[in-house]
Amino acid sequence: VQLQAYGGGLVQAGGSLRLSCEASGDSFSSYRMAWFRQAPGKEREFVSHINRSGTITSYTDSVKGRFTISRDNGKNTVYLQMNSLKPEDTAVYYCAARPFGQSDYSYWGQGTQVTVSS
User: Any residues with CB less than 8 A from the CB of 81 and at least 6 apart, and which?
Assistant: First the structure.
């Protein structure tokens, strides 16, 4: 599967952005989907994931209550709604897909830059 992430940009602190990640192919609903991010000089970190049906989500503590992950299996797309953005949210955001029955995220998008100014 190929993943294409988009929707990043420059926003002021307190603002919002919605990231989208569109997957190619016809097996999108068989993948757990996730968002990761990597800030300059830091390791890539997990942000959020959503199960195949979209009924179970998980978030890293720093984004709980501010970010919402969702998916539309009919459109082969996963979203990350980011509200109340903070400068520390500045990073390249990546979407990833984990095939059913596997423990690792095997497929990665190219990343989209999110910059939050103070």
Answer: 16, 18, 67, 68, 69, 70
Cα separation of 99 and 118, whole Å?
Answer: 38
Amino acid in the structure at residue 17:
L
The model's pLDDT over 17-44, given as tens digits with 9 standing for 90+, comes to: 999 999 998 799 999 999 999 999 999 9
Please enumerate in sequence order all residues whose Cβ is within 8 A of that of 35, keeping only pairs 6 or more positions apart, or say none: 19, 21, 47, 48, 49, 69, 78, 80, 93, 94, 95, 96
> Based on the number of CB atoms within 10 Å of its own CB, is 41 exposed (0-12), middle (13-18) or buried (19 or more)?
exposed
Band of residue 82 on the pLDDT scale cut at 50, 70, 90: very high
Closest CA to 49 of 37, 38, 115: 37
Find, among 51, 92, 85, 48, the residue nearest to 68 by Cα.
48
